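Worked example 2:
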Amino acid sequence: MPELPEVETVRKQLLNHLQHKTIKSINIIHNNVFENQDTNKVKLNIQNQTINDIKRRGKWLIFELDNYDLLSHLRMEGKYLYRKPNEKIEKHELVIFNIDDTFELRYKDTRKFGKMYLINKEDLYKNSPLTKLGLEPWDDNLTINYLKDKYKNKKLPIKTVLLDQSIITGIGNIYADEILFLSKINPHKKCSDLNDKELKLIIENTKKVLDKAIKEGGTTIRSYTSEEGVSGRFQNNLLVHKRENEKCLVCNNIIIRDKIGGRSTYYCNKCQK
């Protein structure tokens, strides 16, 4: 699944191609992408809207149009592709945007899990999925006290809670493993048992890992590649994720894979206490 660094990579690529371009029309092939929305109304409202900017909140892309904001979540395998007009529509291309009558932006999703929402601008942070998101990793309000307040009554493993988008948004399975390894925290440890030093390390290493991943264009694992098949390079820097039965790069202990909260979790039980 694309996590924050992968979505940020896609955002930059899309912005480079689409800023100040106009959506002439939209062909919605799979209506469920626009969940609980009148697709005829979406087609009418998005027509002739200019893409003024593309931003990101957590794992959500925000296309800032003239009168609306278009939210897009890639979920497991969603990606955007550029195609010539009248080029054959391939399987799993679910939404097609006609851009300035010169090319098409196609949303492709083999699993059909991705979602889009056309939102009135005044409702973006009042009545949209963004209202449920927590702090961005670089938000100045992400402090030890903030995490202490959020974690104090949670008996769940820290690995599970790091994936909770309502606390820190954008962290997924890959980067949660890497953050906990650098912080020397066992992923099974209960949130409520974390001390101030450990919370400080989580904040610092969240920024460190995600900054580096963005610089490397994200991580390419299994089905994820960014727009037009561009692959990230951060997978070459992974210290524990997907390294089951390999030697720890710090202590030579064998990396373990466990299931925590239904998610595969990789860690070194010698380095991470």
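The CA atoms of residues 138 and 207 lie 7 Å apart. The radius of gyration is 20 Å.
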